[in-house]
UniProtKB/TrEMBL annotation:
Record-given protein name: Helix-turn-helix transcriptional regulator
Residue ranges of the TM segments: none
InterPro entries, A to Z: Cro/C1-type_HTH, Lambda_DNA-bd_dom_sf
PROSITE patterns: HTH_CROC1
Amino acid sequence: MTLRGQVRNAEALGRMLQQGRMLHGMSQRQLAEQLGIGQKWVWEMEQGKPGLLTERLFEMLRATGVRLYAEVDEPEEDAHPSELSSDE
């Protein structure tokens, strides 16, 4: 099963990221450790906390009529969360 949705704002992006993390059976802490970042940053992204980059990104998308979509694929049955690459 693939989840797909239009990402219209930082909150929608955060929800998609959260769904992807949860489908891969990872906690925020595990994801943060895998990426070499703080767990607070993962939480802030999933909550759609405004930031300069995301605000400008979504302003540009709206101004140019570009739509952003995200898809969340279920992990392969034999893949362990620590074996997944960050670009999956």
